[in-house]
Amino acid sequence: MQIGTGVKFALGENPKSVYNDRDETPITRMATAAMIREGLAKAQRYQQELDFAESDPDEHMPDYDAKSEALLPLLERDVKAHFHCHRADDICTAIRIAREFNLDYVIIHGTEGHLIADILAEENAKVIAGPILCDRCKPEMQNLTISGPSVMQKAGVKLALCTAYGALQRTESRGAHTREDFPARNDAEWLTRTLAYWKEGDSLPTLKYEDASPWFELPPGERGYGGGKIIPAEIPADKIKTKEQAEEAIK
């Protein structure tokens, strides 16, 4: 797992409701977008000042700016911008900001993406759709539909198929991952993590697997799902460690 792979930007109702209760800005969608642009523009200027100081020994380095420093990998496209948004207009705002600052971005949620699927496809936008099987807890989710991802996929939008494809290969039920055709929790075969890699040009991700844990304080037991049926795994004795043993092993 790689750490520090994205920077989150929240558009829509969440920032409005949080800061409205504090009587602070932003309390409108326009103000939220303006603050994101302001932060990115400031980081751009900060980078320019750093480059100028490094190229000229007579120039002083700019004062350290932690907020701008955090955004530099984003501007260099080393990490992705994760725009959390539901409504179509918020999704379009995210696309415009990403275009203005040349960001490598992903739309998270994309609840109304099916209403602008043609735009998303034209912009080559990537969407992580969902949650879908939930209530419409906010006004901006009024157009939530289970068919939304299908509409986007048919329009040519690249969706988060990594999760769906990985779940299809996992022939068991575990937690929220529940299958009628494989109702038992299968520790013998699937006590693993799924790692998905999407190679450029491939239509489906490449899946790999790693052990769920390098050790266990107790063998995996009943956790109340999978209908109570578990296909147990044989855990080698050297993988059963106390907390103290595990901490020592890390050292």
Show the helix and strand layout.
Layout: E1 6-10, H1 13-21, H2 29-55, H3 66-75, E2 80-85, H4 88-100, E3 105-109, H5 117-122, E4 126-129, H6 148-155, E5 158-159, H7 161-169, E6 185-186, H8 187-190, E7 192-197, E8 206-211, E9 230-231, H9 243-250
Parallel strand pairs: 1-2, 2-3, 3-4, 4-5, 6-9
Antiparallel strand pairs: 7-8
Helix pairs in contact: 2-3, 2-4
Side by side, the strands of the main sheet go 1-2-3-4-5
Strand content: 15-25%
> Between the first and last Cα atoms, what is the distance in angstroms?
20 Å
* DSSP helix fraction: 25-40%
SSE-based structural type: alpha/beta
How many helices?
9
Q: Give the low-confidence spans.
A: none
Tell me the series of helices and strands, N- to C-terminal.
EHHHEHEHEHEHEHEEEH
